[in-house]
Amino acid sequence: MSRGRAGSVLDALRGGLVVSCQAYPGEPMRDPRTMAQVAVAVVAGGASAVRAQGVEDVRLVRASVDVPVVGIWKEGSDGIVITPTLEHARAVRDAGADVVALDGTRRPRPDGLTLAQTVAALRADGEVIVMADCGSLDDARAAVDAGVDLVGTTLAGYTGERPRTDGPDLALVRDLLAALPGVPVVAEGRIHTPAQARACLTAGAFAVCVGTAITHPTTITGWFRDGLA
After folding, report:
1. Are 187 and 168 in contact (CB under 8 A)?
2. CA 142, chain centre distance (Å)
3. Is 23 exposed, middle or buried (0-12, 13-18, 19+ CB in 10 A)?
4. How far is CA 90 from the centre of its chain?
5. For 173-201, how does the pLDDT look when each residue is reduced to its tens digit (9 = 90+)?
6. 47-62, pLDDT tens digit by residue?
7. Which residues of the chain carry a pLDDT beneath 70?
8. Which of 31, 67, 91, 184 has the smallest set of CB atoms within 10 Å of its CB?
9. Torsional sign, CA 145, 151, 153, 155
10. Domain boundaries, given as residue ranges, for the chain
11. 21 phi and psi angles, rounded to 5 deg
């Protein structure tokens, strides 16, 4: 990716809505072709970028939309799950992701590499935009020191360092902006309404990533069912 391309990807993300198109194993929509169709649908609705999970999903989504693709590869259920190793990160990049997102916490990585070593190895392969999914301010500081380009609040409330907020962790967004001037902060996690998304941008987030509230009909249906109870 040329420097011009990297700049255009970040420009596309700035102030925009990233939509995470994922389905969990065993669910009816857990098919790369379905997720690619969902990606096309959210882009038609105005998504500035799409987040996709799994190598085949990333490949098909990349071929189906003309907006940046944030790629991850989830494996396992405990500890580091989001693009946990250098091998996973390289596969996501090679599948066509414009941004490789990976676990940006300070926990030990399954392949024994540090986050800094992982980022350096990706950079040695060629230019790549790397996003760190973080759970705390200390995670984000360490991730920036490791050389990532963007940090996200994706894991806030899921690693034991911060309470799980009802809605997005706006306090963490503000803390990241204050502590890491100039570093793009993507608000992600428990953003369930347009008002909450707007609040993230108002707090200063570089971009907002929404998944469940847009692309997970089982959960959305449950919200309505519970509202009728």
Report:
1. yes
2. 18
3. buried
4. 16
5. 999 999 999 999 999 999 999 999 999 99
6. 999 999 999 999 999 9
7. 1-4
8. 31
9. negative
10. 3-228
11. -105, 90
> What residues contact 135, with CB distance under 8 A and at least 6 apart?
105, 154, 155, 156, 157, 158, 159, 161, 162
What is the per-residue pLDDT for 5? Answer: 72
Distance CA 197, CA 203 (A): 10
Tokens representing 110 are 């399954």
CATH, range 3-228: 3.20.20.70
